[in-house]
Amino acid sequence: MSVTVENLEKLERRMTLTIAATDISSEVETRLKKLSRTVKADGFRPGKVPMSVVAQRYGYSVQYEVMNDKLGEAFATAANEAQLRVAGTPKITQRDEAAEGELAFDATFEVYPEVKMGDLSAVEVERVSSEVSDPAIDRTVDILRKQRRTFAQRPAAEGALEGDRVTIDFEGKIDGEPFAGGKAEAFQFLVGEGQMLEQFDKAVRGMKVGESKTFPLQFPEDYHGKDVAGKEADFLVTMRKIEAQHLPEVDEAFVKSLGIGDGTVDAMRADVRKNLEREVRFRVLARNKAAAMEALVKVSELDVPKALIESEVDRMGEAARQDLKQRGVKDADKAPIPSDMLQLFRPQAERRVRLGLVVADLVRAQNLQAKPEQLQAHIEELAQSYEKPAEVMRWYLSDRQRMAEVEAVVIENNVAAYVLAHTKVTDKALAFDELMTA
Predict the structure, then answer these.
(1) What is the DSSP letter of 317?
(2) Which of 185, 180, 215, 177 is CA-nearest to residue 197?
(3) Treating both helix axes as pointing N-terminal to C-terminal, what angle do 265-299 and 134-147 enclose, rounded to 10 degrees?
(4) Which of 45, 76, 157, 351 sits at a 20 to 30 Å CA gap from 424?
(5) ∠ CA 391-395-399 to the nearest 5 degrees?
(6) Residues 155-181: what's their mean pLDDT?
């Protein structure tokens, strides 16, 4: 058939679809006859319900299904003939005028854009690197020690020190009035580990069991509790219990408690280094990948289909709904996402779609698809951080969806490598702490 495509605005197109009325009525009749074999109705045996009853009860829904199916087939055929790459779902409206015996519809839709890639060699990209230092290993070992520390009650005459676990009662008031969340009994926290606001933490240091103290506390402007953010409160604190921490010695007993087979301190440090180096590789790769993708977007020109942006906004809204559900928010999966929240998603959604289109175009143009050996190597690297790598590998390889996720990551890595190979790269060495806290 001959297809005429009308260009509207940017990526928007429109074409007319025609369907013979007899094709609709014939298919409706065929489906109703098939339905009549199994439909049940009071006063009739199964398969013996008169067609007039079947048509009266199900005619409208069957007509709707047939119309949708026929329009879908007609649109797919027309789009294929016109060699169009359709983005999103077309909007179809019936025309008032049509040839005798036909139904006519306008299909309005968007097509995928042409991506114009600029000169990558003119773009500057910062590529970072980092190494695992001995002090980083020392700090990690200290964290492992803290995870296995024990506590013993301090003598009554001694005050609370940094690292102690204290049990307190406290009550806060603003302008002499209590406020929500400002009171607790037998509340525990570790002094000096950032679990409380700094002013509160400092006020508790040096207090002895049975001692009470009143002190002012200024809540930060950006405090998570909006009712008290930026306000000054007076707190009354009473010390109930002080427990000094005891960190295990770094010896063979400690190493064995970590499940390290060799049981030596050197083996433990080597294991810690290996794990940290793996984490550093992933973080460096993620950071360099982000820089490469930013360069790719910067040098590319394209119009972004509105339909794809709306679809991504909906997907992000659904992800937010599921996140609220997992956090225990009641009926979060049923409540609609507020429109103002969806608007907040829109800039990020637009950038994601834009980047996805640019990446897909570059992958096709430069043959950057994931190779089997790359997939295997990536899964092996992921599995190494688990106790039983072979089982983790089988877990990935046995599921198509998980393999698709791995493939997407490998393709992104290929794209990043291509971009970094064709841009002006400036290398920068990052300190371990700077990389881990970024």
Answers:
(1) H
(2) 215
(3) 110
(4) 351
(5) 160
(6) 94
Q: From the CB of residue 195, how many other CB atoms can be counted at a distance below 10 Å? A: 11
Among all chains, which residue has been given the structure tokens 């092996």?
380
Does residue 420 belong to any structural domain of this protein? yes
Structural domains of the chain, count: 3
SS3 91: strand
Instruction: Determine the Cα angle at 138 with ends 133 and 140, to 5°.
Output: 95
Are 253 and 259 contacting, i.e. CB atoms less than 8 angstroms apart?
Answer: no
* AA identity, residue 188: Q
Length, in residues, of the chain: 438
- Report the C-alpha gap between 337 and 334 in whole angstroms: 9
pLDDT value at residue 116: 94
Token pair in block for residue 205: 């240091």
* Packing angle of the helix pair 400-421, 339-366 (nearest 10 deg): 70
Give the range of the structural domain holding residue 14, as residue numbers without chain letter: 5-111
Residue 112 identity:
Y
Q: Which domain CATH number covers 229?
A: 3.10.50.40
Question: What one-letter code names the amino acid at 142?
Answer: D
Rounded to an integer, what distance in angstroms lies between the CA atom of residue 290 and that of residue 284?
10
Q: 272 by DSSP, 3-state: which?
A: helix
Regarding whether 45 and 174 lie in a shared domain, the answer is no
In this structure, are 172 and 96 located in the same domain?
no
Q: pLDDT tens-digit profile of 366-416?
A: 999 999 999 999 999 889 888 889 999 999 999 999 999 999 999 999 999
CATH code of 76's domain: 3.30.70.1050
